[in-house]
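Lab notebook page, bench 4
Experiment: in silico fold of construct C2
Operator: M.H.
Input chain length: 323 residues
Purpose: comparison with the prior construct
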Amino acid sequence: MALSILILLAGLALVIIGADLLVDGASAIARKAGLSEFLIGMTIVGIGTSMPELVVSFTGALKGSADIAIGNVVGSNIFNVFLILGLTALVSPVAISPDNKRRDIPVNIIVTVLLIIFGMSHTLLGLGKSDTISAWKGIVFLVLFMLYMLMSFKTGKIDSAEDSAVGEPVAGKKIWLAILMVLGGLAGLVFGGDVFVDSACEIARSAGLSEKFVAITILACGTSLPELVTCVVAAAKKKGALALGNIIGSNVSNILLILGSSALVCPLSFANIKAVDLGAVALGSIALLTSAWTGRNNRIGRGDGVAFLLMFTAYMAYLFMTV
């Protein structure tokens, strides 16, 4: 047990170092390429920090374990909004641009609704023989992911005063050094997160916890650790746009890219995923939209952060009471 705890702490330290390198490197690339920090956060950082979820869900699909593949994504998206964005907003309010309001946050909701419809098509619409994300649904997810990425890059140039004002110290870095920082940071995040997940799962499974419970809690928390540390570090460095991009990019990638890819390997059954779990994912998307339109000065403030953390606590309490 003591060795597992030491390994877990070592993984956490590696993730923190990786996040610091990733944030600085990604900001420098954004400046050099003339792209907004939100876009860099959503693509390079968001997809990069979703690599642990991709590995876990893809491996689960290869082994025929839909509970691991789906539970990991569902849990990660809940963690991303309620826990990670909640903590990030407490560190520093997160700015929201007009494009975030009009396009990115609504897309997050649409993708979440599509997940529920595709996953629960038999229960909700009476279609098919079971609630399953099949290969053709996975292809739809992947096509939508590529279209969203193309649309984002076409409109992702720097266009706000805030983007131009922050990150100047890292803007002078050589592009090759910035790329090395991003690659090194991602490597630290993925490897450190993998070490953290393995040690945490070993402890959890020795306690006799169910596969679904481990996936939605321990695995989801562990694979969301890169997003958590990256967003908190970004907030501390006053790079709220990068943090928000990381959250939205990770959530969209988790559903469209990760579940889409996993469904091509093995049909993903939603038989053991409860309505409360999917409801929590939907609530996270709606809460983000509500904060975007009601927050002061186009920001997700500390009050929103507290509300997100309270909703996260309520969901965790529900999970533990229904183990």
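Observations: The two ends are 23 Å apart (CA to CA). The chain has a mean pLDDT of 79.
Next step: discuss at group meeting.
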